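DM from R.C. (forwarded with permission)

"hey, sorry to bug you on a friday — could you get me a structure for this? deadline for the figure draft is monday and I only need the backbone to look sensible"
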Amino acid sequence: QVQLAESGGGLVQAGGSLRLSCAASGGTFSRYTMGWFRQPPGKEREFVARQWRVGGNVYTSAYADFVKGRASISRDNAKSTLLLQMNSLKPEDTAVYYCNRYPGLSDWGQGTQVTVSS
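My reply, with the result:
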């Protein structure tokens, strides 16, 4: 079982940027397809981005349409850390952001709150 701890959220103005971090412990992080998800206020949790290994140390990524061109998922396998760089933030990006083994194979962490003001 992988334990997950998200950080890096905060209050930011529209157009700003944030970098979210997810520390994972337990398991073999480098082998896992990892994803970011978010839960906007009053809505269901939704997929944001995921990254998986295609061979050796080569990974590829996929993004939800609503963040394409504005987000970049990456990882540091040596630190078992997953990152999400988000730029050009919009008020509708306000949500609690979570990481997990895609599509949600481990217990969910506490998440990190991102609030984007207009």
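R.C.: lifesaver. The chain has a mean pLDDT of 97.
me: no worries. Residues 20 and 101 are 16 Å apart (CA to CA).
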